[in-house]
Design brief:
- By secondary structure, the chain is an alpha+beta fold.
- Helix content is 18%, strand content 30%.
- The protein has a domain at 43-145: Peptide methionine sulfoxide reductase (Metal Binding Protein, Guanine Nucleotide Exchange Factor, Chain A, Beta Complex).
- The strands form 3 sheets. It has a 6-stranded antiparallel sheet. Strands 4-3-11 form a 3-stranded antiparallel sheet, with no helix packed on it. Strands 1-2 form a two-stranded antiparallel ribbon.
- Zinc ion is lined by residues 63, 65-66, 68, 112, 114-115, 117.
- Zinc ion (ZN) is lined by residues 63, 65-66, 68, 112, 114-115, 117.
């Protein structure tokens, strides 16, 4: 029985890698850095693995695919989840919310409103004042420091 679980876990982890090859690491015609499958296929990167989960510099987080400004370091906090977490967006119009029924759960998916790149999910366990948590893949973001 243990053997079956091991095979299953390996399939889960590698499925993302093989999809990247098929898609040639581009999204809407734009070349992207590695881990693109999170952006294109709505995958979720492993917690505590991304570039920004523990990132504390001041600045804004923009869409990796189209540079649209999405989140600010002013709203970033340590949620303990292992993914970059924000309690608010930079501009409400830049992030789109969709119902996601995958994995047998009802969740709210968040996407870039400009280019439709998958960003992550929205949860109701954030801090005040909003009480919500934008849980985002580091792979969907690029950081732009406020002081150059
Ligand atoms: Zn975008």
């Amino acid at each position: 029985m243990k053997y079956i679980y091991t095979i299953f876990s390996i399939l889960l982890v590698t499925s993302c890698t093989s999809q990247v090859k098929e898609l040639d690491n581009t999204f809407n015609g734009r070349a992207l850095p590695e881990n693109t499958c999170y952006v294109v296929n709505g995958g979720t990167e492993k917690p505590f693995s991304g570039e920004y989960w523990n990132h504390k510099e001041e600045g804004s987080y923009i869409c990796v695919a189209c540079d649209s400004p999405l989140f600010s370091s002013d709203h970033k906090y340590q949620s303990g989840s292992g993914w970059p977490s924000y309690y608010d967006v930079l501009n409400e119009g830049n992030v789109r919310k969709l119902k996601d029924m995958s994995l047998g759960m009802e969740r709210i998916e968040i996407r870039c409103n400009t280019c439709d790149a998958h960003l992550g999910h929205l949860f109701n366990d954030g801090p005040k004042p909003t009480g919500i948590r934008y849980c985002v893949n580091s792979a969907s973001l690029k950081f732009k420091p406020s002081k150059l």
